[in-house]
Amino acid sequence: MKKVIVAAAGLMLAGVMTSTAFADVSFSGDARARFKYLDEYAGSSSKNSFFDSRARLAFVGETKGGAYVKARFKLANGKWDGTNITRGSHSHNISVDYAYLGVPLGAVTVEAGAYDDRGITPFTIFADDADTLQAIYSVDNTKLTAFLDVVAEDASANNNDDVMAFGLVLDQGFSSCGLVAGVMYQHNPNTGGQEGLVAGLDVTGTVGEMTLSGGLGYMESDYQMSSDDGYGLWARLDAPMGAATVSVIAGATFEGYTPDWGEFDAFYVLGDYYMISNGDMIGDGGDALWGVLRGAYKASEKLSLSAQVGYADMDYASDNKAFEIGARALYNVMDGVRLQAMLGYANYDEGSDPLGFGLELKVSF
């Protein structure tokens, strides 16, 4: 409760600053409540059903000169368990997503603070947390970001074994296509620590009404903590057909390369992108080939439906293979209120076969 009071006091202080240093302060946020039923997600005999919820509140304060402060925090983020988590002294009660400042200097903006959107592409690393100092050059369709992140700080008096990451990310738009390319190097002076190069390239373009996208990713062996450098590639086709859209997503990873499955949209059950995902990090441990066929249909202004089948062939974990099928429905109840339902099933050659159902109500403002 004390933390909530402190947060509320901070927001009131932000409101007071509106009339002094800040020319404008705006608030936004969202909240969700979900029900999940997960069968065989933790073994062949496991069954689990539960509710969870969270609320998020964000604010942006901007000075008359264009400098800004951005922050967002989460409240009561966790499973329902009789309020033991959300009313106790847990980090689920309140936590910071990001809190940083920005100062525009012509075409370059300097940002510093706690950041939650560090990444190159979703197929490499994306939307990671970082304590960062970065410079962003932005002109027309060109955005170039140079960053320095403190990954871990050695607090001992006689040591300087800090883990640092630095890199460049280019986001370039053209008339009918665009690309994102980036490189990051993580320096880790600690023996056996995660260190090395990560690079990625994503390209998106249109051909008639169709959208084509694809990309490449690379991770040095010491970064992915393996004996070999890892690499992967992916491609996607989105073809609209009236109110329907057919999508084909396919990819391959080699030598243990693992995409950021928490940010890369492909499978419903496999991976870690959706609320019924089982957390299977496809590619982690060897080579993998995978593909997804998805159909989406806009039934009305409020209702959207989709269904898909997917397949993954993994040459590690005893040459396991997995097939999944799933469906999803999104319904806009009213402005800022959305209801989502998902159902999915995955069949593995070896191991348990997860069946998941999720229902989510979300309010955004």
Could you give a short description of this structure?
The chain has 365 residues and is mainly beta. The protein is built from one helix and 18 strands. The chain has an 18-stranded antiparallel barrel.
Please, could you describe this protein's structure?
This protein is mainly beta and 365 residues long. The protein folds into three domains: 1-32 and 56-97, no CATH class; 106-205, no CATH class; 226-365, Beta Barrel (Porin). Helix content is 4%, strand content 60%. It is built from one helix and 18 strands. It has one helix spanning 2-17, and strands spanning 22-39, 47-63, 68-79, 94-105, 108-118, 128-139, 142-152, 163-173, 177-187, 196-207, 210-219, 230-241, 244-254, 288-298, 303-314, 321-334, 337-348, 355-364. The chain has an 18-stranded antiparallel β-barrel. The longest helix is centred in the N-terminal third of the chain and has 16 residues, at 2-17. Residues 1-9 have low confidence and may be disordered.
Task: Compile the SSE list and pairings.
Blueprint: H1 2-17, E1 22-39, E2 47-63, E3 68-79, E4 94-105, E5 108-118, E6 128-139, E7 142-152, E8 163-173, E9 177-187, E10 196-207, E11 210-219, E12 230-241, E13 244-254, E14 288-298, E15 303-314, E16 321-334, E17 337-348, E18 355-364
Antiparallel strand pairs: 1-2, 1-18, 2-3, 3-4, 4-5, 5-6, 6-7, 7-8, 8-9, 9-10, 10-11, 11-12, 12-13, 13-14, 14-15, 15-16, 16-17, 17-18
Can you give the mean pLDDT? 90
What is the string of helix and strand elements? HEEEEEEEEEEEEEEEEEE
Total count of domains: 3
Helix run count: 1
Strand content: over 45%
Shape: globular
- CATH architectural label of the largest domain: Beta Barrel
Output the CATH topology of the largest domain: Porin
Secondary structure: helix percent: under 10%
The strand count comes to 18
Radius of gyration: 22 Å
**Largest beta sheet, briefly?**
18 strands, antiparallel, barrel
Instruction: Give the terminus-to-terminus CA distance.
Output: 24 Å
Structural class: mainly beta
- List low-pLDDT spans: 1-9
Q: Name the CATH class of the largest domain.
A: Mainly Beta
The CATH homology group name of the largest domain: Porin
